[in-house]
Amino acid sequence: MTSPMPHGPAEPASTAAARERLKLARRWAHQLSETACVPLTYAELEQRLAKLVDELCDALGHEPPTAHSEVAAHLVDLRCTDPASLRVTIKVLGSGLLSLAGPQRSDRVIGLLSFLAADYAERMRLSALDQQETLRQAILKAMLNAQLGLQASEARFDQLERTSSSGMAITDPQGRFLRTNRALCTILGDTSIQLVRSTLFDLVHPDDERPLRADYEAVLRGEKARTHEWRRLVRQDTETAWVSMTLSLLGRPAGQGHVMMVVEDSTELHLLQGQLNRQLLHDELTWLPNRQFFSTWLEKTLRTADPATGVTLYHLDLDAFSMISCGLGRRAGDLLLKTVAQRLKDIVAKENAMVARFGGDEFAILVENSATTPDVAGMVQQISDRLAEPVDLDGHIVAGSVTIGVVDRPAHHISPADLLDSADLTLRRAKSRGWRQWELFDVARGAGRRAMLGLAVAMPKAWQNGEIKVLYQPLVRLSDNQVSGVEASLDWHHPLLSHLPHDECMRQADRTGLAVPLGHWLLRSACAQVAAWQRKYDQDILVRVSLTPSQAVDPDLAGTIRMIIRETGLRTNCIRVGIPLEALSAEVSQAVDNVKLLVQSAIHVELDDAGMGSACLLRLAELPVQSVKIARSVAKWAPTRPEEDLWAPRALKNLLSILRDAGIAVTIGGVATTAQADWWRAAGADSACGAFFAHAQLPEDIAPLFIEDALS
Question: Are 288 and 433 within one domain?
């Protein structure tokens, strides 16, 4: 905002002069602001200059003028230091002061402006000197601070060099050592004087010299800010030191500076890492490659092997190793494993082959076949004969055998995992035939076995989803054809394989350890269903459940059955538990104790899958078994025509006669025809079940009247 101009109808001379001075100040402020960046608002500048105009006008009345010193000082303080500012000031004040003072004072105006210009020049000179002094002081202070900082930095670097466990050195563009610390000398086993006489490239391992030179040149040229690599340096004692080396550039221009090298001694770490890698990839006992290493090698060999000869994989399992390890002690077992490992390596020493231990008593041999490699039968014979040679295990002489699964020349596109799975399946199939066997992989049989294993794995989910149900098949008294009860069994309604019967369900459950919980579920479901029928029809209905060998040896079997009977409310005399003869055949068996405990609890125990051998009769004589169920394979021996007189039917009649004399009831399963039913009835069997009477059905499909009434 500008100052208001004095005005009035009859303006005095003094007021008119003030107005002219204010106009002069405004004109001066306007033109001066265009020549310099004044740190004031326009109104503040106008007021400041108005005071200066008043001082200049007052100075014209004195001899010599006295106000010019203040004007020059004010102009310099307002940063009007450009030559244009002085020109504008002289021009505006010259014309304005002449107008205010009149022509008679022109000499005074000129003198005043001359003094103003001279004083302005002096003020500018003094201001420049002040600025130079300030700049000089700032430069001196900066130099002092830089020197102190450099001294502190060098002191810190010296301290770092002395105390650091890392080797440090500064080298010139040719790799010569200019400065080293004690740690680097310790790492290399040299003195600082010896290092100064050397270059970095004299100390590096020959195999690492070329890549180190390439990195060194790249750092010097500025292509890389730094490099960090593992290097091998040669110590004074010619031993190799593994180090982590970092190179970075010191100084400019690129290519002419120095290189800072920092070295971390990692020799012990490298050796430890190598040892850990070896332990990770090798068996700790035999130091053979383990499964992980073998799988990697297998993948590589499958890619590089000659397609004409291919590879052969042998998967071995020592027979009766657990007997040796448990009978003679763990040390004897370890000695045997070491001996087997060495013998296997000796067998394939002339072949391009790898021997590995997969764990426990399992080994594998991968042979990359050549024209001189023995055929599969010959190699298997060599392995069997060599491992059958006696071995001394701390004074115990033993001779072992081995079972082998072989995959010969697999398809080139097979994956390592599939190849190992195929070898394992083949080995398991060979072991199922006994000891000292070997089996060659068959694609069709392998696919079938893989499907069965997949079935076993899918069983828990199928059980959870309700695909497995309990079916009931009527048990019929052969004397009057009355239904006395039901036999409970499992049925798996598989989405792809249709219905899987009870025996197959339990066989698959045994593969995954599901037999015991699934068997308990079958027992509980059957007892609950029959108890419900008993309450509904108010009559005793028998339920029979066959146990698996796994269930029969379950230590909690008797307690579990008692608890199920108590919880479901089934009458104790209405349950019949089938114990398989297989579970009772061992000399010491938990199944024998379970039979005794069940009988003590008034639970009817039936010998399941009984045959015609002496083992069956022996168990019947020793155990309090109340009935037997003839095995289906034996039940089929019944003649199909009444006139047949074969030795097997006669033997069956003799067996039933013995059982009747002993007071043991006989149940027949799998009766399919009228002739079979009539023959067994005549032979003295007590009850039967099978397709001839009725198929196994869901509980809602068995009509209550079918249970109450006699069969027609």
Answer: yes
Q: Is residue 181 part of a domain?
A: yes
The CATH number assigned to the domain holding 232 equals 3.30.450.20
Distance CA 383, CA 377 (A): 10
End-to-end CA gap in the chain = 128
Burial of 565 (0-12, 13-18, 19+ CB in 10 A): buried
Residues 412-461 pLDDT 10s: 788 888 899 889 989 988 888 888 899 998 754 544 455 555 566 667 77
Residues 312 and 257 in one domain: no
**What are φ and ψ of residue 167, in 5° steps?**
-75, 135
The DSSP element (H or E) to which 539 belongs, if any, is none
CATH number of residue 392's parent domain? 3.30.70.270
Low-confidence ranges of the chain (pLDDT < 70): 1-14, 61-69, 104, 149-163, 165, 191-196, 251-256, 267-279, 443-458, 494-498, 586-588, 610-621, 633-649, 703-712
Quick one: which of 261, 210, 269, 198 has its CA closest to 235? 198
Indicate whether 267 and 289 sit together in one domain: no
pLDDT at 541: 86
H or E element: which one contains 705?
Answer: helix 704-708
| pLDDT value of position 22 | 85
Burial of 323 (0-12, 13-18, 19+ CB in 10 A): exposed
**CA dist., res. 639 & res. 646, Å (int):** 8
Instruction: Give the per-residue pLDDT at 711.
Output: 36
Do 357 and 413 fall within a single domain?
yes
Give the pairing of strands 482-494 and 498-500: antiparallel
Which pLDDT score is estimated for 280? 72
pLDDT at 343: 94
On whether residue 5 sits in a domain, the answer given is no
Domain boundary pick from 272, 297, 319: 272
Query: Which H or E run contains 37?
Result: none
- Asked if residue 168 and residue 126 are part of one domain, the reply reads no
Q: What's the pLDDT tens digit per position in 179-233?
A: 888 888 888 877 656 666 778 888 888 888 899 899 998 888 888 888 888 888 8
Backbone angles phi, psi at 206, to 5 degrees: -55, -35
CA distance 555 to 565: 18
In which order are the strands placed within the sheet that holds 362-368?
352-359, 362-368, 311-318, 402-408, 438-440
CATH of the domain at 475: 3.20.20.450
How far apart CA 597 and CA 554 sit, in angstroms, is 12
Contact 172, 196 (CB under 8 A): no
Token pair recorded at residue 419: 């190849």
Tell me if 367 sits within 8 A of 348, measured CB to CB.
yes
Do 665 and 644 belong together in one domain?
A: yes
Q: How deeply is 246 buried, as exposed, middle or buried, from its count of CB atoms within 10 A (0-12, 13-18, 19+)?
A: middle
Q: Which domain holds residue 301?
A: 283-441
For residues 250 and 318, state if they share a domain.
no
Last residue of a domain, one of 85, 115, 132: 132
